[in-house]
Amino acid sequence: MSQILLSKVNEIFVESYALYLKTQHHHWNMRGAQFQALHDLCGNLYQELSEGIDEVAEHIRASGAHVTANFETFHLNSKLPINNSSANIYEMVKDLINCNEIIISLLNESINLSMQEGNNLTADILTDRLRWHAKTAWLLKMNIE
Ligand SMILES: [Fe+2]
């Protein structure tokens, strides 16, 4: 894997972890209309996301690189908005949609780069992640439209 693709995959790892924490944050802090359905949805999403993060991290390791996983690195490198515990349930769902879409665009760029490099395995793993984030964005959108 080229250094540029590796840095993209690392970026996906960091943002996926930031989204994992954000999805937990919203699961715990949301309140109001549709609470039960959205609390349950976010609970399922963060558990599914943890498996996706594991796939990406193990792919980084299998490519010969180390996985840097600590709060300092996440804080320095994540570009997702900071969690706001006073946001209302609608704003929290919008925030999750926005962050899933940020990761979708990172994934699309990285899949294109993987294919340019003839790296089919990376493209395949990232396409699995893309499918999950696209479905998640749709599930979330259906709750606020
Ligand atoms: Fe829970």
Short structural summary:
With 145 residues, this protein is an all-alpha fold. 78% of the residues lie in helices and 0% in strands.
Structure in words:
The structure is a single chain. The termini are far apart. Helix 1 runs antiparallel to helix 2 (35-62), helix 2 packs antiparallel against helix 5 and helix 4 (89-116) runs antiparallel to helix 5 (120-142). With 145 residues, the protein is mostly helical. It is 78% helix and 0% strand. The chain has one domain (3-142): Ferritin (Up-down Bundle), CATH 1.20.1260.10. The mean pLDDT is 97. The chain has 5 helices and no strands. It has helices at 3-29, 35-62, 71-77, 89-116, 120-142. The structure holds fe (ii) ion (FE2). Fe (ii) ion binds next to loops.
Low-confidence stretches: none
CATH topology: Ferritin
Residue share in helix: over 70%
For the sheet with most strands, the description reads: none
Q: Can you tell me the CATH superfamily?
A: Ferritin, core subunit, four-helix bundle
Summing up helix and strand content along with how strands pair, one would put the structural category as: mainly alpha
What's the pLDDT, averaged over the residues? Answer: 97
Report the strand count.
Answer: 0
Number of helices: 5
Q: Any idea what the CATH architecture is?
A: Up-down Bundle
Q: Keywords, please?
A:
0% strand; Ferritin; single chain; elongated; binds fe (ii) ion; 145 residues; 5 helices; mainly alpha
